[in-house]
Write the structure tokens for this entry.
Amino acid sequence: MSGGALSEALAHPETSAADGDLGASLAGSPAGPWRRAFRRLRRDRAALGAGIVLLVILVASLAAPLYASLVSRTDPFRSNLSGKIMIDGKRTPIMQPSTEGRGLGVTPIGPTWRGSYFLGADAQGRDVAARLLHGGRNSLLIAGSATAICLILAAIIGTTAGFLGGGVDMVLSRILDVLWAFPVYLLAISLSIVLISKPIIIGPITIGSGSLILPIVIIGLVYAPYVARPVRGQVLALRNSEFVLASIGLGMPTWRILMRDILPNVSTTLIVYIPLMMALNITTESALSFLSVGVQPPDASWGTIILDGQGLLYTRPAVSLAPGVAIVITVLALNLLGDSVRDALDPRAGLRR
Amino acid sequence: MNAASHEPAPLLDVAGLTVSFATEWALVPVVTGLSFKVGHGEIVSIVGESGAGKTVALLSVLGLTDRRNTKIEGSVTFRGRSLLDLSEREMRQIRGREIGFIAQNPMTALTPVHTIGWQIEEQIRVHLNLSRAAARRRAAELLDEVGLPNPAKALDLYPHQLSGGMRQRAVIAMALSCNPSLLVADEPTTALDVTVQAQVLELLRRLRLDFGLSIILVTHDLGVVGEMADRVLVMYAGRVVERGPTDVIFDDPWHPYTWGLLASIPPLHGQRAMRLASIPGTPPSFTALPKGCGFAPRCRFRFEPCAETPPRHEQGEHAALCFIDSSDRPRLREQILYPSSDRVA
Amino acid sequence: MPGSGGEPMIAVIVARIVQMLFVMLGISVVVFLIFFATPGADPSARIAGRNATQETLAAVRKDFGLDRPMPVQYVLLMKRLFVTGDLTSFANRGQRVIPQIMDAAPITLALVLGAAVLWVVGALVLGVVAAASRDTLLDRGLMGLALIGVSMPVFWFGEVMNLLSQSRMHDTIFFSWVPSLGYKPLSDGFAPWFKTLVIPWFTLAVLYIGFYARVLRANLVETYHEDFIRTARAKGLGPLRIMLRHALRPSLIPFVTMFGLDFGALVGGAALLTEVVFGLNGIGRLTYVALQSLDLPVILATVIYASFFVVAANALVDIAYAALDPRVRSGR
């Protein structure tokens, strides 16, 4: 997806049809805006549901090692081509003789719906369910960290450009324009390919080519311009607003103005972006991993597992389907949460029911 | 009040209109017990500060409030029909056809992507059975009547190509395109400068004269009221605190809020005041209305009884809700209307 | 398109073109830096591809002037790409790059155009119906579907569609007509061409339908709060007319803007995931294959090609904006 589809996120505060000042006189609940927003969020059942789902996924992913050792009793990172497991009292090989086509080669077993190999095995004989949970850890970790990097970068760039204006703004905006012109995936893929081919050595720090830092930084970097633009726009508008101009006129130091007037508003914008960017980053990471330029083996992520399952798509679809479903559920929950957060932070939401 | 048996039935009869909004905390009444009548060819003005619920009252009459979060009680009778009981489809035949509406802000009242000619013709063709050519001719006539220069060319202009005053005139033309008997105008001149305001008001007066148009004129400007209205309703915090014929209200106002409004008109003659009089304080938030008289917190003359619901004083068509006794009134009124302390030496 | 008394349209267009050129220059520099200037690697190895002989490496170094200073390298590269047009792919045994792009472009175009038609129509219908029936079960249901569409990774959904149409349900009436993966050009006949593209069209469109329907619905609902809608209701107009004639056009403005940008990006190669999954040799897939084999000349060319479309789309969108919103035409 590209710039067009991404600029949707913050665009729609809904206005009230009542008297202009009526709105103000109706909004008189005593709690501050953050508390009100939080209350609204708590009452939103969709948000609650989404939050619970995300929590479950998070906990399950964190518990991946426990699952691997206690439930499935396998090592999700080691090939197990000649292993056997017990099913209904019979010892069955994990890689079965193939029944498709000409009957040559082997096919891993399908879902057993039991503790061991709950979702079946992949082409290396590894337990798909255990890998799924481990993959979740990496996918969530990457998405979360990349979101953090993206928002921090966007906040710095956007605030600097919007607040300082003039030449600084022009230069930064041109750079943003150029970055924006790259289709996101192409930029990410290009960077990944270049950076993954060899370890990067910066002074004493060595970043191996399989390190997770690479996808994190790349994804965070690539999406930063998208958030930087609205932030810049908002800071620009705020800086030219009457109360900020008055503060400047009164001689208030810049950092005070930033802390008191600009940052609180910008942080509201950024908070709305958190669930949305996380959803986007999960999808992007999975796409990059699917194309072999994201997470590198032996590490797993939902994207790599989908890739693993490609060769088995028609015989053992569970391998590819399961991580995809996991992504869909997670992204869905994040999107729902994102919608609810945006609605909750809308200052005029009290007038609608 | 004398119910004259041969008094003609009013065009519009609003009785006990109460409008409440459902906010996330409670049902908040924004208009309480509003009652008034509008006769044929009458101009009735509703005055009050911003946020007094005037616009909401108007919208409720027209059925333009958001049904999902608005509760409307009371009755609104137009030409003998109860508007609140009509279906949406029946209301659509009345809106734009028998009752016209002019909104406060001419800059945003017209759809930006269509020419004004198109928008006027649209209304005409929806209600009247005219051909496109006939509708276009009528639209040009209307624009001419409201004083738009070069009406035939103006038809093809977009709203943003007209000034505020012209836009408001176009809106008036559009509202009157199907010859309604009642015009509901929500602060039609507030967003315009003074000379344009005078022209628009003059236009409305002429329309009343020429076509027998009845007008409900909502405004916060008593100057406009004095010029235009036959009768006045003064609203505060959702209630009518005083009502009566315009000259009576101006000559002998009863309610302290009315006094404050009158006093705040800068005088054209006499000594120049050092300070412009204003009513201290701000209108209450509807979620935190005081018990008893709504105006009491800002009233200079409040005393203990004001914590209870004020009684209604009546004399003929003049009425007010206040605890101040008629004997005390003139003295207290003087203090507001003719304060002696602000003269320039 | 030019409105009455519009400010010198020519000046505006020229300014836009200059801006476009500037951005493209910037992009070419960034691409150059990414592939030639990243520390710690020999660019000639990248160009020659893996497993190149010493002679090839030496030849590459000489050809691309890799022993010369950076700016010279950059100029030489640009010259071969734009001026002499004889940029050759080293990983593909001397095949010229530009014809490769020319061959792949129509495939991408076919994919993107078809998907675009589907998604615009789909999003319009979904968005309008949802907004018209807002807060009812229908609205929530449609938006729920849209949300699911947005939440599926496009490549995974493509795989699922393949699973169904090529394997599991291939023998049913639903999918028996689906040919095997790959593209058949129009010259082979309309029906075969069409059949290879139907499922890819659908796959690519689903994601965007979800997105655009949500955006349209949100814009419509917001527009409904505007004053001029209240005026329209006060005029006694029916809800259908208000929706289609008064609310839709202003709400379409963001829709069109986003569409232009997305379409431009897709034509330039952003549909690579769909192309890879369905075996269509479009620009996206070409770029991806080139990236995988570090076929630098092809990468350079395709990325610049892609960026050109994005930038051109940006400019076109601004023009379309003027067509939709008369306020912009007269320069207000």
About this structure: Chain C touches chain A through 71 residues (CB under 8 Å). Chain C is about 75% helix and 0% strand. The longest strand of chain C covers residues 88-89. The domain at 103-294 of chain C is CATH 1.10.3720.10 (MetI-like fold).
